[in-house]
Amino acid sequence: MNPVSVRVPAKVNLQLGVGPLRDDGYHDLVNVFHAVSLFDEVTAEPADELRITVEAAPGSRVAIGGVPTGDGNLAARAARLVAERLGAAPRVALRIRKAIPVAGGMAGGSADAAAALLACARLWDDPAAPALAPADLLNLGARLGSDVPFALLGGTAVGTGRGERLTAATVHGTFHWVFATADGGLSTPAVYAECDRIRAARGGGVPEPRESGALMAALAAGDAEALSAALTNDLQPAALALRPSLRGVLDAGRDLGALGALVSGSGPTCAFLAADAAGAAGLADALDRAGVAAQTLTAHGPVPGATVI
Ligand code: C5P
């Protein structure tokens, strides 16, 4: 059996509407996912036992220190899930090459899990009569994490429920982004918990989130300025409370000409929308000179989800 390599994108949330805390510990979301051109690569190769290695992608300065290489890595759980479904033994070596910031609010761990699902299915499933259809992989993905199905799908999509029920969105054109990473990640559960705490202290109920019509119209029109005005993230106050320095990063991006600025998902990566590719490159340079970010990265979206290469 030949090795299988899968390329998988990062995401930024264009709208992250967070409803009240549910009994199961999750929140109902309206989550507009947008896949951007920062890619991890996962290679699956037959081996004696399940093994994971993690390295920075060539040319990437992503800090991989905190990434688990045992069962704590979501990609390992993905491999076990596919093996169990196919009645195979999870004898696979997964090599993860990371360019997506770790614990950065860009779903890098979920992306690796999605890539591992696809790579292991390709390795062990029967190509003539596949036991696992794309819809089955999406379902397995939802068992692994709320953001995993989107990493399989890619593009731009509205996620409801925990974020795992996806509907593709109509998008025209390409949007150009700058991402400012921070040293040290933020824990997603901690950011959700802080969001609940802030809301409880404020009092008054939490409404169910609603999809933004202005955002969907901006996407359909390919209008970066209108999209910038419609970007929202209900987790942003919590991320800023846990990491106050992010306020200065967002302000710097706006001062340096970003059309729009927000914390990506649960943070701490900050996302800036530019008018075009040249605008994004100029903004990234200016943010680098300002020295407010660990690293700046440029990317465009939407891009396809996990793809065998
Ligand atoms: O689904 P996943 O394991 O990626 O979620 C990580 C954590 O994020 C959950 O344990 C929960 O604390 C929080 N979360 C949430 N509501 C969602 C998605 C995630 O509260 N819809």
TrEMBL record:
Sequence positions that bind ATP: P101, V102, A103, G104, G105, M106, A107, G108, G109, S110, A111
EC primary class: transferase
Reactions catalysed, as given in the entry: 4-CDP-2-C-methyl-D-erythritol + ATP = 4-CDP-2-C-methyl-D-erythritol 2-phosphate + ADP + H(+)
Signal sequence interval, chain numbering: none
SUPFAM superfamilies with a match to the protein in the record: GHMP Kinase, C-terminal domain (SSF55060), Ribosomal protein S5 domain 2-like (SSF54211)
Active site: K11, D147
UniProtKB keywords: ATP-binding, Isoprene biosynthesis, Kinase, Nucleotide-binding, Transferase
Pfam hit, one: GHMP_kinases_C
Domain called GHMP kinase N-terminal: residue spans: 73-155
Pathway as given in its UniProt record: Isoprenoid biosynthesis; isopentenyl diphosphate biosynthesis via DXP pathway; isopentenyl diphosphate from 1-deoxy-D-xylulose 5-phosphate: step 3/6
Annotated InterPro entries: GHMP_kinase_C_dom, GHMP_kinase_C_sf, GHMP_kinase_N_dom, IspE, Ribosomal_Su5_D2-typ_SF, Ribsml_uS5_D2-typ_fold_subgr
Domain GHMP kinase C-terminal per the UniProt entry, residue ranges: 215-291
Enzyme Commission number: 2.7.1.148
Molecular-function GO term, any one: 4-(cytidine 5'-diphospho)-2-C-methyl-D-erythritol kinase activity
Similarity annotation: Belongs to the GHMP kinase family. IspE subfamily.
PANTHER family: 4-DIPHOSPHOCYTIDYL-2-C-METHYL-D-ERYTHRITOL KINASE, CHLOROPLASTIC
Protein's name according to its UniProt entry: 4-diphosphocytidyl-2-C-methyl-D-erythritol kinase
Gene that this polypeptide is encoded by: ispE
